[in-house]
Amino acid sequence: MGSTPLGLTGQKHTNMKTLFLDGDMLAYRAAFSNEVETKWEDSIWTLHTDVNASLAYCDDFIESMCKKFNTEDYFVAFSPKTNFRYDLFPAYKGNRKNKRKPLALTELINQVRKRHPFMMYNEMEADDLIGIMCTQDPENTIALSGDKDFATLPITWYNYLRDELTTLTEEEANRNHLIQTLTGDATDGYRGLTGVGPKTAVKLLDKHGWNWRGVVAIYKSKGFGEKHALLTARLAYILRTENFKDGKIILWQPTK
After folding, report:
1. What is the pTM of this model?
2. Three-state SS for 243?
3. Per-residue pLDDT tens for 184-234?
4. Distance between CA 116 and CA 199 in Å, rounded?
5. Beta strands in 16-172 (DSSP E)
6. Is the dihedral of CA 65, 110, 82, 244 positive or negative?
7. Nearest CA to 17 among 152, 138, 129?
8. Alpha-carbon torsion, ordered 100, 103, 106, 107, to 10 deg
9. What mean pLDDT do residues 25-51 have?
10. CB 77, CB 141: distance < 8 Å
11. Four-residue CA torsion sign, 197, 200, 204, 205
């Protein structure tokens, strides 16, 4: 691929797209799908897993994606234990603390990393890594994830949960980011404005304007200030290539 903002290098095959896979989602799905409940007696049950079966799931998925897009170039992106969003909002993903992770997830990730080219960077989630890489070269890259947050990036994105391939313009991506700034993301533990879902967000932005001034006006109409809106916007924003320079993350700033 040549050099990248993250110092990543790799061999680029002529006319081939480079795939960037969301390794977090892939590993979770693989690990959960291979857990097996076993009943030993009337009151005794156990849960076990076969890491090799989960690894085969990952291998098969990656191979199928390479065949689908006729490429040999790919990277699997993983998240570290912490990232910059926890500094902004300590309760980020706090709703997941009491949820059980699938068995052998860490071991599975380690095995995938040994078998496949992977990416991981301190303070960045897998989404951010993929966002940076794909916005650097949108014509020759494809993001692979079932996470709806990728709709906030001006890239080509394949949602394999829906079997949908979408290429978003910068305007479309920015509009989707404004929508998510109003709705928040309960899955990640941060909320936007109470009672504002995607449809309501569109109506409000149509009324107040599809820009930062409109977002602030909507927040103020609900009793919140610009500071609150900015925090939500930064939590919702997946980093792009312009948000990483000289090894440092550059937080999203609104266009006044």
Report:
1. 0.92
2. helix
3. 999 899 999 999 999 999 999 999 999 999 999 999 999 999 999 999 999
4. 40
5. 18-22, 35-41, 44-49, 73-77, 118-119, 141-144, 156-159, 164-167
6. negative
7. 138
8. 180
9. 94
10. no
11. positive
